[in-house]
From TrEMBL:
The lineage of its organism: Bacteria, Bacillati, Cyanobacteriota, Cyanophyceae, Oculatellales. The keyword Membrane applies. InterPro entries: HpsJ-like. It comes from Thermocoleostomius sinensis A174. It comes from the Bacteria. This is HpsJ family protein.
Amino acid sequence: MQSKKASGSRPIATLAARALKIVGIVITLSVLLDILVLSIPYQFTDRNWQIDVVTQVVDRGIVPLVGIVLFLTGYWIDSTVGLLSERKHLWQEPRFWALVLSSILGALFLILFPLHLNNVRQAYQASSQEITQDATNTETQLGNQIETEIQSRQQQINLLVTATDEQLDQLVQQGRLSQEDAQRVRQFRENPNSIEPFLQQTREQLTAQAQQQLGIGREQAQQRLQSQALKAGLRIGISSLLLSIGFIVIGWLGLRNLRRAEL
């Protein structure tokens, strides 16, 4: 009774083993091919290209790991039902090459771990310098705009101080001049030496406002950049390290067991 049940389950086990082997091979090769295609055009010296490729490789790294595990599981099923054929040489064993590939991928992900962290650090420094340079250029542009504004106000004051009180009152009634500005113009007319200190004070106020807004924008940009770099470095770096451990453990333990079985 038990022998009939065992013989009946063998075809199912054989089918399951073959399916796992095929699925494992297809998954692993398709991901490796996908990575090669997505990396085109190859720009090995480009830091941004390296960051993008490493991100793609790590994000897909779990798939070949699953593929190799499925492939090895298929052979384990074969061994449980006694369908494994004896091989004289280790290199003739398909499991050997799967385990070698696992070890190679483990070493690759181990190398990608510090490489990605270093690239992210350099990219952060370069972007930080760009933010600082942009802020400096913007500050220069704002300085020129402030000087243009001061010159415009000086010309306006020089024109208004020649106006009579009636003309000033008329401008106030028309809404073209505030009462406060009209009073200040009268003071300028009585004391022309106060015009320059007023313009200097206005220049300092405008400069302080511009620098404050520029500083806030630069600080926010630096914080966003730092947050993005930290997230990218930690996520990809830790994932790469974990994948490296998984591939290496599977590869080395499997090769050791195969070696023992051969001996």
